[in-house]
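Practice problem: predict the structure.
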Amino acid sequence: MLDIRYIRDNTDKVQQSSKDKGYEIDINRLLALDTERRKLLTQADELRTKRNDNISKIKGVKPTPDLIAEGKKIKEQITELESKTKILSDEYTILLNSVPNVINEDVPKGGENDSVEVRKYGEQPTGAVDHLDFALARDWVDFERGAKVAGAKFYFLKGDLALLENAIYQFALDFMVKKNFTFMTVPHMVSSRIMTGAGFAPRSSDQSDEYSIEGEDLSLIATAEIPLTGYHADEIIDEEKLPICYVGYSPCYRKEAGTYGKFTRGLFRVHQFNKLEMYAFTLPEKSTEMHEMILKNEEDIWQAIGVPYHVVNIAAGDLGAPAAKKYDLEYWSPVDNMYRELTSCSNCTDFQTRSLNIRVRRKNGNVEVLHSLNGTVVSLARSIVAVLENFQDKDGTLKVPKVLQPYLDNREKL
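Answer:
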């Protein structure tokens, strides 16, 4: 969430940024609730002080009828104010939590089509066989039996394709560990506080992307980013320990609500997939530098594998609530003759950490909210698509990228 003091001082900026992101937020209503809430809290505090004074007057002596009546009246007034404050605070909290992070000044305005290319790598080959047709012909994937056991858009990976997924994961994990990211496995479910604090509250119920556990305050995670965000909730971290860098592995569960019609064939958009995720906690003045470093890690991995891509600075209207800025790395599809999303990385500044009360203690003793960032190392279903499309051979086999061969018994083809 944003700091309410920041919203008070930057009302127009927050309102415009929310609009640029596509959120309809009534900032004036939020500020009116804030003013009234503070007024009620002040009145309640004044009454509590008056009540304490009243109690001190009768300490050790028999209270007069007037003092008894005054004490009863004060108690009733406090109860009434607390009731009003709770009702008002509930609406205030909902509105405050619905305000998205403010975008950085270098974020392009507009929607998905207004994102700006930063740079590109590699050639743009054409004429490949669709990844699903290629995999089905080799009995490497089974969506029919996936649907039988779990429903549409669930699948089994088989044989060499499952081994290829593992090879991509192992290569990427080794790469990140050498970059001094601490490897973590994470819970696959989180509480509503962690889910909301990480910024995954949906814009509307029909767009909710999370699977919730009936009868429990738990939801299945859509990315390891969510539990990694909550790992240091309610903690104060000493400045000398920053940055803290994690790489988390998990399955990801997504309804993919509202996304149908957007590259849904085969493995590109599914309800469950495995992912390796970078996550960093850092000082506010270092988060821009960290964002570029996370992006470089993503680029280095895909350059090493040998998949052509370009980097895109995502436009405001295509940013989620937590991100102040996001880069997407999109691979070149020789099937569709266009770039398609492969990884992303976001600077969430203090949006998630403020919600979950994650702070830093400076060397001078000051305590403040730190910054958090995240980035995809490899999203394995899409990684498979990118490799299948870009490493097909004319003889119908799949060339194994050189960096992946050690993880596949040094095989050069599958």
